UniProtKB/TrEMBL annotation:
Residues 9-109 form the EfeO-type cupredoxin-like domain. Gene3D superfamilies: Cupredoxins - blue copper proteins (2.60.40.420). It comes from wastewater metagenome. Pfam families: Cupredoxin_1. InterPro entries: Cupredoxin (IPR008972), EfeO_Cupredoxin (IPR028096). Transmembrane segments: none annotated. This is EfeO-type cupredoxin-like domain-containing protein.
Amino acid sequence: MVKTLSRWLGLALLLAAATAAAELPTYRLELHNGELRPARLEVKAGERFKIELHNTGNTPVEFESTRLRKEKVMAPGVQSFVVVHPLKPGEYEFFDEFHLPDARGVIVAK
């Protein structure tokens, strides 16, 4: 009985987290063989948001932002996302570490 209740509770928490992430403002970022599309994302300062990551190229990519403490490695054809905490107004760099020095972008929080 306790084991079953624990499973249901875990499932409910997972579903709640997925629902909360789905309701966030969402921005699409395409990583394609060293190109970031778009290379500039404008977001609302003070608001959590989600970046959908799409590796449309034929090589692995690594979305990374040192300042945001986010990192995501993806194989070709993979889609994923990162959730970013509310940002203060300013610029926050991100890059594809596997395709430096060219694959650089910026998030601008206004």
